[in-house]
Specification:
Radius of gyration: 20 Å
CATH architecture of the largest domain: 3-Layer(aba) Sandwich
CATH class of the largest domain: Alpha Beta
Largest sheet: 7 strands, mixed
CATH superfamily of the largest domain: Vaccinia Virus protein VP39
Number of domains: 2
Structural class: alpha/beta
Number of helices: 12
Order of helices and strands: EEEEHHHHEHEHEEHEHHHHHEE
Length: 329
């Protein structure tokens, strides 16, 4: 699909909102010709450019485990690697957007991980700005950096270096429940969506996400260094996944019985290769147990937040263990 030649909104200083202008604010390495630092002319703040990606957060932050998992599993969830349209189908099913409606528009993706949805967005011909707080941006760059319509930024949702009211579409999937203040996160996202722009945000559904054995384990497991926890998960999942799969086949009670086994089971995705299913299970089991924050939300609370922001055409739908919020700013 041809890429529409649109220019992304300029980066701006999170501290004073002054535009960071290329050529005047970038320090360039003589050996590589790549900018190594951005400087704000307004307040004098400087921001490093790490392997071509502007970084506006410290390297070490609460999302360390996500950086670890996505750099280990850079390719696991990419449709181009699984050969299945799992990410594509989820994106368009939850958002109700179409590839045609995205072509040539400015899309802001918040919390990109390794880039499973970034890949799909770039293929529509949209101009994509993808933000993540963790070092997962480098996994995303390795997979999707060849797309000329992609700009990657490492930054916090609370202080994105982007102008307000600048984007036509906002996508945030699998993210806000893992942030320190979910309400603040949700409401901050919309600063950057233009009036009339469309959004799709999902979040773990409460109380659906609570009655699961992993909730008893997380107070301990989230304190374990990511590399050590990953080794434990890698050993346990091959033993527990067959148990979970057997329980899932029990008539009527299967979905509830699997909650007694702290392992992610993706039989519903149609992953026919045993190795692929096992890899997804290892990844998502680690994703369950490692995040520092996990705060599912109720439908009533989500609707209240959308009313606080005067959002329009809002729907809140249950998709398995998620609430998906769609609408128009």
């Amino acid at each position: 699909m041809p890429v529409t030649a649109t220019v992304p909104p300029p980066l701006c200083c999170p501290a004073c909102r002054t535009t960071l202008r290329s050529g005047h604010t970038a320090h360039t390495s003589p050996s590589t010709g790549v900018a190594e630092q951005l400087r704000c002319d307004g307040c004098g703040a400087t921001y490093p450019v790490d392997r071509g990606i502007p970084r506006f957060v410290p390297k070490d932050n609460y999302a360390e485990s996500f950086g670890y998992q996505w750099n280990r599993h850079r390719l696991t969830q990419l449709d181009s690697c699984t050969g299945l349209p799992i990410s594509r189908d989820r994106l368009f099913r939850q958002s109700h957007w179409t590839p045609e409606s995205l072509r040539g528009t400015q899309v802001l993706e918040c919390g990109s991980g390794a880039g499973r949805f970034t890949e799909v967005l770039c293929e529509t011909g949209a101009q994509v700005t993808s933000v993540d707080i963790s070092s997962a941006v480098h996994a995303n760059a390795a997979s999707n950096g060849h797309h000329p319509n992609l700009r990657l930024v490492q930054a916090s949702i609370y202080e994105m270096p982007l102008p307000e009211n600048a984007f036509d579409h906002l996508l945030c999937l699998g993210v806000i429940q893992h942030t320190p203040d979910v309400e603040r996160t949700f409401k901050t996202l919309f600063r950057h969506l233009r009036p009339g722009g469309r959004f799709c945000v999902d979040v773990y559904a409460a109380p659906v996400a609570y009655p699961h054995l992993r909730q008893l384990l997380r107070p301990l497991t989230k304190r374990i260094p990511p590399a050590r926890l990953y080794r434990w998960v890698e050993k346990l999942v091959p033993r527990l996944l067959p148990v979970s799969t057997a329980l899932s086949k029990v008539p009527a009670a299967g979905p509830y019985l699997t909650r007694l086994v702290p392992v992610a089971n993706h039989t519903h995705l149609g992953l026919t290769k045993t190795e692929t299913a096992l890899t997804w299970s290892v990844l998502d089991t680690f994703d369950w147990l490692s995040p520092w924050h996990e705060k599912p939300q109720t439908r009533r609370r989500l609707l209240r937040w959308t009313k606080d922001l005067s959002l329009r055409e809002v729907t809140v739908e249950r998709h398995r263990g998620l609430y998906v919020v769609r609408g128009v700013k």
